[in-house]
Design the sequence.
């Protein structure tokens, strides 16, 4: 062994490096114009949310009763004013903060919780796996909208409760995918080989399973962001999520409902934002799936 | 034995001496439950491995042959406890595996496996060198040293470490990947290597190169091989002894030349006659095997081969033949070999029928 | 196959039990005292205890659950705290309204979804395919409550062709139907995108299979091939449709809110804001049961229709 080690240490030639997996995915994704446009839109939305204080021309919370429901194109209010006389453009810009936060956070939380549950169930298999997955099936047996509304309805209105409800909605979906891919990976010979070399389950999951399952789970999770955006804004639309006077697109849509006979197009504006965000996330998720779905 | 070394030190290379078999398998059994019905109750068992005994001597290559589904691969996986055996004991160099004397982890360090599918047996997200260095790190070798060992092994299996160490499996050919798998198996410096159809998926020319590599490595590292294959030509080429399996049981076991030239079990004969040969002297006139092996869920009574055997007699469906000596080191489980078994071709023996 | 069907039914039982447990738990994860909305603010401790015993809230959870489940099995979902009426009656009435628009929406969504999907799959890779695919992305990305608002703006506020909200005068079939059009069309967008995607994949897959290539080689006409495609795609497409109906029943709350349609979503909305927990619990239980049983039926029907499906 000593001689063996010396042999290579004496000649520490730099090995030829191959590109990692994610670099390949990024290279393929870059060649997909639709996905890149979607990515640009998402980056722009996130920048808008971060830079809202600098971008918004007016205070999103201060309104004047004298200038309520001005139409789109009014001088000083390019997108008009809402039912309390607040500047729509500023509210839409500020609204990106809460809307994106409420849409993305549950998926991130569910990604961690669902992956942990699903990978555990998939790798353990047998009885433990069955018990976990049957419990997951119960939550899966509710349509997502119903479960989200039921939970936040029972917990009560508010951003925290809405986040918890949405996370609970997505955990079973992610756990199912995680369990399925883990079960597949567990049957690969390299996992058998790792077991045959005496490695324990934690080491095997860390070194051999995670790297191979997190990618597919991640792609699935990105495809949920679009749904999550719609659901999160939906909860606020029902009055269950973000509370007035905070700017959030779903909530704005709700409060402007009364104005559809006065300023119909103005009332529809916040929905356009939700729609665009949701399309962008959907297209990005599709592109990501294609970029990763390459047989290596 | 070196004087002063503790008698039970499992790290000692040759503990039991050359006469002790490196591997002894006793009564290995694996029944997979079949669930069915509305409630998913166990309704039957697949008798994948059904009472297998054999030994592997130090430094030899034992070939294992048989049709697909005969339990060859299951046997290999059972040996390493990759699947839990229903019953049976495994001894390594005289020590019982899983006993305080020899833990499963230590046994797994000394016994490694090479799988058939070279692609599926390498983690696609790890570089070649990381894959090879993984096992030594599990056993406490520092990373730097494990990587150095990986590179050295790459060189020994004929792959330039400078070119290959940092590559990913998908960038390699099937033959190259199988060389990596062999290097990976050797990284723990094992004494026994289980080769499960290790060359079966390769092109013929590559197969020959890998076989030669295996022979060289065996001498270089003093290895013992359990070589599982459905390819009789390859088994004959590499094996010292051959074990023929049929429906989860051993049909015949003996020195390679003897089994290939003077097979006692009609199954072996049939298997050999279905073997493609360019040598006209080796062509037999026996009928090759017809049809598929019977279902291992409900194997035939008596001798399991009696449903396909051309020498079948009444007694074959009721009496199960035991492995019986047919020559030096040569045993077969056929009533035609068992003295006084009741089969018309059995030796009229002094022995008592099983 | 019979064994599979039997096992599928047996497997549904623990799911149903779990679903009812979740519904039961809803009341207990709710913050505050479940009695708070019926109690007068100055209720004496004695009265509180009396009411608590009356509703059974003084029992251990497991007893409460078993009692509740036992009553639910007999069709008694308790009493609405807000209205004092039987929850079962309220839910059954509401389910009727929801079913009306959900079925109509499923039919519309299935028709147009199959049409788009079929065209896209048949002319795969063409401009038609790309347009249809993009439309189906729009379909799954659109916040349907917003789409409902936009339709109201166009067809009610601006054009004045259709009524914006409500259920209309139910003695007039025509009036009822006119009130159903906008909610149903809005809702139909949800299954349309998914049906289109499924049908597109199915058709493209069937057309690339060897038997179709073989049929073409034998000189079969386009109409003949069309029949083959329909026959092979129908079971899966119908299954997707069935599942979508289940989603719509449970997911109608946002759309019903937009259109003030007196279905389950409307009832849920009221239950939530009046803290009427028995009503909330009962409505959700009924909708979830609908969904689970619909899933079961679809699965069984699909197995029966398509003998190729191997189940083990």
Sequence:
């Amino acid at each position: 062994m000593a001689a063996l080690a010396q042999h290579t240490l004496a000649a520490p030639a730099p090995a030829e490096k191959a590109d990692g997996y994610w670099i390949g995915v990024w290279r393929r994704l870059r060649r997909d114009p639709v996905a890149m446009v979607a990515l640009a839109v998402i980056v722009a939305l996130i920048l808008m949310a971060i830079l809202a204080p600098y971008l918004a021309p007016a205070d999103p919370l201060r309104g004047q009763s004298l200038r309520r429901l001005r139409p789109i194109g009014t001088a000083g209010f390019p997108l008009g004013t809402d039912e309390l006389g607040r500047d729509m453009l500023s509210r839409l810009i500020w609204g990106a903060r809460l809307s994106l936060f409420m849409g993305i956070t549950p998926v991130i939380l569910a990604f961690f919780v669902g992956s942990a549950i699903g990978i555990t169930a998939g790798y353990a298999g047998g009885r433990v796996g069955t018990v976990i997955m049957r419990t997951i099936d119960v939550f899966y047996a509710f349509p997502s909208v119903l479960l989200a509304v039921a939970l936040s309805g029972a917990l009560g209105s508010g951003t925290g409760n809405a986040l918890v409800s949405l996370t609970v909605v997505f955990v079973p979906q992610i756990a199912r995918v995680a369990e399925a891919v883990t079960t597949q990976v567990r049957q690969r010979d390299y996992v058998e080989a790792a077991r045959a070399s005496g490695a324990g389950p934690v080491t095997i999951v860390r070194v051999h399973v995670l790297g191979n399952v997190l990618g597919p789970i991640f792609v699935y999770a990105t495809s949920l962001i679009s749904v999550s955006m719609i659901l999160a804004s939906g909860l606020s639309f029902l009055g269950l999520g973000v509370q007035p006077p905070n700017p959030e697109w779903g909530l704005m849509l709700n409060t402007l409902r009364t104005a559809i006979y006065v300023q119909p197009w103005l009332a529809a504006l916040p929905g356009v934002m939700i729609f665009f965000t949701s399309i962008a996330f959907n297209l990005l998720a599709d592109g990501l799936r294609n970029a990763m779905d390459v047989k290596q | 034995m070196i004087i002063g070394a503790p008698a039970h030190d499992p790290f000692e290379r040759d503990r039991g001496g050359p006469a002790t078999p490196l591997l002894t398998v006793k009564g290995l059994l694996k029944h997979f439950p079949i669930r069915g019905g509305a409630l998913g109750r166990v309704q039957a068992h697949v008798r994948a491995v059904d009472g297998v005994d054999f030994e592997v001597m130090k430094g030899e290559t034992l070939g294992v042959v048989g049709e697909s589904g005969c339990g060859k691969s299951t046997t290999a996986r059972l040996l390493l406890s990759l699947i839990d055996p229903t019953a049976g004991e495994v001894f390594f160099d005289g020590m019982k595996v899983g006993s305080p004397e020899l833990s499963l982890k230590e046994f797994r360090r000394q016994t490694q496996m090479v799988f058939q599918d070279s692609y599926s047996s390498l983690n696609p997200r790890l570089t070649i060198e990381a894959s090879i260095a993984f096992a030594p790190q599990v056993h406490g070798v520092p990373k730097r040293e494990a990587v150095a060992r990986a590179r050295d092994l790459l060189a020994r299996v004929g792959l330039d470490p400078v070119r290959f160490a940092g590559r990913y499996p998908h960038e390699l050919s099937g033959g190259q990947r199988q060389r990596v798998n062999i290097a990976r198996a050797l990284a723990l410096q094992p004494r026994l290597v289980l080769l499960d159809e290790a060359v079966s998926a390769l092109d013929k020319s590559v197969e020959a190169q890998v076989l030669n590599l295996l022979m060289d490595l065996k001498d270089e590292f003093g290895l013992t091989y359990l070589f599982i294959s459905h390819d009789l030509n390859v088994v004959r080429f590499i094996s010292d002894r051959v074990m023929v399996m049929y429906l989860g049981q051993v049909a015949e076991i003996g020195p390679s030349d003897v089994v290939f030239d003077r097979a006692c079990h009609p199954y072996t004969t049939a298997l050999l006659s279905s073997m493609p040969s360019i040598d006209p002297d080796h062509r037999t006139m026996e009928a090759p095997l017809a049809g598929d092996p019977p279902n291992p869920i409900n194997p035939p009574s008596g001798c399991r081969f009696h449903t396909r055997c051309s020498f079948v007699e009444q007694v074959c469906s009721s009496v199960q033949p035991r492995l019986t000596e047919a020559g030096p080191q040569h045993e077969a489980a056929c009533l035609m070999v068992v003295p006084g078994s009741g089969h018309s071709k059995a030796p009229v023996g002094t022995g008592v029928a099983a | 196959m019979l064994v599979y069907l039997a096992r599928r039914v047996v497997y549904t039982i623990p799911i149903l039990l779990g679903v009812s447990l979740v519904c039961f738990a809803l009341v207990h994860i709710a913050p505050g005292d479940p009695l708070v909305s019926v109690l007068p603010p100055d209720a004496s401790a004695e009265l509180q205890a009396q009411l608590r015993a009356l509703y059974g809230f003084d029992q251990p959870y497991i007893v409460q659950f078993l009692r509740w489940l036992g009553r639910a099995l007999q069709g008694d979902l308790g009493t609405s705290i807000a209205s004092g009426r039987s929850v079962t009656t309220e839910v059954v009435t509401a389910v009727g309204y929801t079913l009306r628009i959900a079925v109509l929406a499923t039919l519309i969504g299935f028709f147009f979804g199959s049409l788009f999907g079929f065209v896209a799959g048949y002319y795969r890779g063409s401009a038609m395919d790309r347009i249809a695919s993009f439309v189906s992305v729009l379909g799954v990305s659109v916040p349907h409550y917003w789409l409902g608002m936009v339709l109201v703006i166009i067809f009610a506020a601006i054009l004045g062709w259709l009524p914006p909200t409500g259920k209309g005068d139910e003695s007039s079939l025509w009036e009822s139907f006119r009130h159903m059009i906008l909610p149903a069309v809005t809702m139909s967008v949800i299954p349309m995108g998914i049906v289109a995607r499924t049908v597109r994949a199915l058709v493209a897959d069937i057309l690339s299979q060897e038997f179709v290539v073989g049929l073409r080689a034998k000189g079969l006409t386009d109409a003949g091939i069309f029949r083959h495609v329909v026959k092979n795609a129908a079971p899966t497409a119908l299954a997707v449709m069935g599942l979508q109906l289940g989603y719509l029943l449970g997911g109608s709350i946002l759309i019903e809110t937009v259109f003030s349609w007196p279905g389950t979503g409307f009832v849920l909305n009221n239950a939530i804001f009046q803290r009427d927990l028995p009503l909330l619990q009962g409505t959700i239980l009924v909708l979830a049961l609908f969904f689970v049983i619909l899933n079961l039926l679809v699965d069984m029907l699909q197995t029966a229709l398509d003998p190729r499906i191997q189940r083990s």
In short: Chain A has twelve helices and no strands.
